[in-house]
Amino acid sequence: MIRLTGVTYRYRRGPVVLQNFTAEFPPGITVILGPNGSGKTTLLKITAGILKPQSGTVEVMGRPPDELRGKIAYIPQTGGLYPWMTVRENIALPLKLQRRSNPEREVESVAESLGISHLLDRYPKEISGGEQQKTLIARALASGAEVWLLDEPLSMIDIDYRREIIQLLKKAGRSMVVITHNVQDAVDLGGYIYIVKGPPLQLVATAAPGQYTDAERLAETAREAFKS
Hints:
The chain has 228 residues and is α/β, with parallel strands linked by helices. Helix content is 34%, strand content 25%. The two termini are 27 Å apart.
């Protein structure tokens, strides 16, 4: 369970992005659906503990996020891999930070499960966007993080990889908050859907898992919610 209560955040010299924002995200997959620029990424960074709100509280599994080092995996839209490290080294990083006894075996096991064993000695610039996303998922799996926060994980993925990545996320068995502006991705991920607008970020509608199986119906609901 993720709980934000009365959270306010404003960037220096910028508008208020969140103002007295309150929401609860249940275990499982939660998709936050809304337009670009509405404050979704800021919300995700606050949940991850990367940004500190000016007021309000954030709890992940009943604790502040800064007390959950290694329990939360934040996967940004771009720049999530270290370009000077190989795929192998990127995946192994959290294992080394945790001083795990046999990180190499764990890296190879996770890579094999995601079908990227042949990429382990390549650098991020040498692999495709879909392969980079698989590498980020592999690193999150290897880390053992219980909560994943994903910022537009499918926005740079071509159609051939899109469904594969969605299936990987659904099979991972972690609690996730996934932000997107793509209605079809929200439907395909199959979790709770929170429709937002902003700034400041506002929750305008919610849907239970399986409530929408048709993207056009969800899009119509979102359009009506944005009018409120």
